[in-house]
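Structure first, sequence second, as always.
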């Protein structure tokens, strides 16, 4: 029997982070598949519950530098950064347009 766990990872914001998260999780016994999205800041893990518990998945992510959290944490981190002249003068869009999401697909697989 395979179960799925969705984990929100605010620090997952680039492709190299996606690759590293997949490496960390595939090293765990019982992991069947890992689908990570830097757009959604989330990881979907398919695993065998007889070999692995959800808390072990979360702890592995935290130990690897990707602690699970809420999506709002990422927005707060951007607000705390010092504002450069470029940041102040340029329009910044932090949320993806839904049309772009549909065109790009939900997740990237590596």
């Amino acid at each position: 029997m395979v179960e799925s766990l969705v984990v929100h990872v605010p620090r997952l914001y680039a492709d190299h982070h996606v690759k590293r998260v997949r490496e960390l999780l595939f090293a765990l016994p019982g992991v069947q598949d890992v689908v990570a999205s830097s757009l959604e800041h989330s990881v979907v893990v398919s695993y065998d519950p007889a070999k692995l518990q959800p808390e072990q998945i979360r702890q592995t992510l935290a130990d690897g530098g990707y602690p699970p959290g809420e999506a709002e944490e990422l927005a707060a981190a951007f607000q705390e950064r010092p504002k450069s002249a470029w940041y102040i003068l340029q329009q910044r869009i932090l949320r993806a347009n839904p049309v772009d999401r549909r065109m790009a697909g939900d997740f990237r697989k590596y």
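Margin note: The mean pLDDT is 79.
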